[in-house]
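Handout, section 4.2: multi-component inputs.
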Amino acid sequence: MSEKIKEAIEPRRISRIGAKAIIRGIFKHKLSRAGIIIIFLLLIMAIFAPLLAPYDPNVADLYNVLTGPSANHWLGTDNVGRDLFSRIIYGSRITMTVGFFSVFISVFIGSFLGLLAGYRGGVVDMIIMRVVDTFMCIPYLPFVLVLAAALGPGLKNIIVALAILGWTGFCRIMRGQVLMVRELPYIEAARAAGASRFRIMFKHLFPNCLAPIIVAATISLGGFIMLESAMSFFGLGVEPPTPSWGKELRTAYTYLETVPLFSIAPGLLITLAVLAFNFLGDGLRDSLDPRLRGEGEKIK
Amino acid sequence: MLNNSNQNLVEVRDLKMHFPITTGWMFKKTSGYVKAVDGISFQIARGEILGLVGESGCGKTTTGRVLLQLEQPTSGHIFFEGEDITGMKEKPLRALRKKMQMIFQDPYGSLNPRMTAGEIIGEPLQIHGMIDSKSEYKEKVKDLMVTVGLSPAMMERYPHEFSGGQRQRIGVARALSVRPALIVCDEPVSALDVSIQAQIINLLEDLQEKFNIAYLFIAHDLAVVKHISNRIAVMYMGEIVEIATRADLYRNPLHPYTRSLLSAIPVPDPEIEAQREHMILEGEVPSPFNPPSGCKFHPRCPIADSPHCREEKPVLVEMEGGNHWVACHLD
Amino acid sequence: MEPLLEVKNLSTHFFTDDGLIKAVDRISYDIYEGETVGLVGESGCGKSVSALSLLRLVPNPPGKIVDGEIFFEGRDLIKLTEDEMCQVRGNKMAMIFQEPMNTLNPVRTIGWQISEPMEIHRGMSREEGLKKSVQLLTDVKIPEPAARVNAYPHLFSGGMRQRAVIAMGLGCNPRLIIADEPTTALDVTTQAQLLELMKNLTRDYKTALLIITHNLGIVARYADRINVMYAGRIIEKGTAKDIFKNTRHPYTERLMASVPRLDYDTKKKLVPIEGQPPDFLNIPSGCSFHPRCVYAFDRCRVETPELITIFEKHEAACWRNVK
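Output:
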């Protein structure tokens, strides 16, 4: 009944679809607002690292080892005298790069396979899903670590190691969405208009199945950042001397009692980054979901 | 004789659509069939409106979809402009889609929520490569919007910003864009408000006159179908039980199902209603998994008394006077 | 004779994020014992909300009955406590909704559901309730009632389910049954069967019936008196003959002209009502119908017309009736 009243006023509603509305939705949520701000700051940090860092992060100064915070070195120095503050700032580059690229590749592979599986169905679906099942049986972290160890150090290798198993979740999500959306009348309308299968998949199905993928991707970003830190912690990260938060943690670990700031700084930032992406993901989910549900309202 | 004369735009012969019921999840076994469409034949002439009416489960929607080859029929033939299009391959079929289009029932679900009205309306034009330049595209879309009674300024709006009736107009514009010879209208007004229904019905009538489009007008509301159609086919459990011109069907309904259908619809006039005889059928529509033998209507038929009705399926027979066909043993 | 139900100036408003929605705006009507009254209007006009208001089932938030009185058997229902109201629901006043699948609990047998109100209000035991359920199922013409009483709703077809819902409503012999679009989701022939059934039952049980629908034909066939609603207000009321033969409100008149009719032989052009249904957040000033009315003149745009008596029980809210 109140639905019926709402129906009468639907056409005058302000736009709920499109970038503007999504952004509005995100900012409405207090937590996701915080999330977006943090991410924005981290991005600034990563992009403008050379401008923001007071020192070259790789320059060692063996006379100033493990000093606490001072006027010269805001966060102090590490075990070879490099400025911690600068290393943290440059570390954000690795974090952001790994995060975004591994998610991007995972989403790309996963969405494509999920789209194919969901739309074509039958044998194609079965094959892809069995592959997904197989990949999902492999324990993620151990496999990533083993692969990283096998591939050797390096940024590219980390990204590959993360993406190789990471796409399975997105595949399942996309497939689920496709199964739902392909039953909607407008897909049949496109068929009746003469659209090719390709067109239907990419012009009609894909945009309407994106919402949960976006949410999952955002939250996965946090997950991948954690993983990268874990890998670096285990010594399987970027090559020295490139700074990364995980690597800093690794080194700082031994000096935990003497120079606690050494570990707190990178640890705090990792936590902040992961939280920020989670909050953003939550905000996105809230602002994207009702639209998905509200699409199919009928008058009678 | 697989090629018929070019008089009729559409000819359907003995169309059957049986959906298998499968059991088992890995290796599917067929345990039975749902005979959604069980051997129907009809024609549609150019520019003619054929109404297809019946209650839920009678197979009318399936007929419309099979006609457009959105599903492949189990058996039977469909001729379009004299050519047998049954079992046509995907590629030539897509080219054929230029000539036959569909308008859907659900004004909310039949439009892609991520496309603007202009994009939705112009898509068939794009698919069939009927436009050369972007400005030509815009002009054509604007034209179409005006033709269906929408303001061209709304071209960049999204479907959720339109009302139900307006969305249905978008659907009509989309179907109209490629100037098809046939439009299958699948319950185009059922989901709309009563006062808006009239707007869309008038629009469809106007377009038909202007562009000489043939319609297969599928609906369960006999009053609406009667208003718009030239000829009407009544379906029951996958079969056509009567086809006649609209005047004939109402002045002289011959099949008992048609008569009870007419009797069941109340007329907005209390005095007429007080005098009308109400022919209320007993029971419900039987399950499609287990249809009655012989004439499928016989268990509910008020006049079925001969064993003939129980044993033999009646065929459509032409009545004197012409152009009125009935499938009943007792006529 | 006192009416069984007397609604006076009932107003139900919805307080939403986008603004105030006056779903029901000062409506008044009455129903006498054993009478069948129709409430006609299109979707979104507030008729369903008004029905829910009678049983005080309007979700709160965001809805609330803000004004008016509902006199039922002499008592104002709005002033009752929730407990007292529970005594009325299902007992003295029953409601039948549009979608039978949603009204029936899928995990309880039909017999259990029909028996429930009787157990609550009449203190029957389960066995007594089930016995009466079988009898009720026979009344609503469900075949093999003794077997069906233990069946679950999903085994029934749409028409059968709705019959079961009617049986549920009749159990405690209510004085008034409110049927909100009871047949809209059903086939035409099933609709006819069900409405005939309801007519016979309400006659046999001497129950009053309020039929809420958008279908003018149904009220022409079954209703003694009719109320027409538009944008939350009753804009015309009278006997069926008054409404159909002596229409005094342009909306009613245009509504009838826009509906295709079975009995017209020649091809008459349908005359649709121009414009869009009203936006509750932006109801036009004066007479809410004026933007779509071909007869509108100055007074219509400024002053909201109240119901004016045309003749005896026939009233219409239109300035054209005032000369």
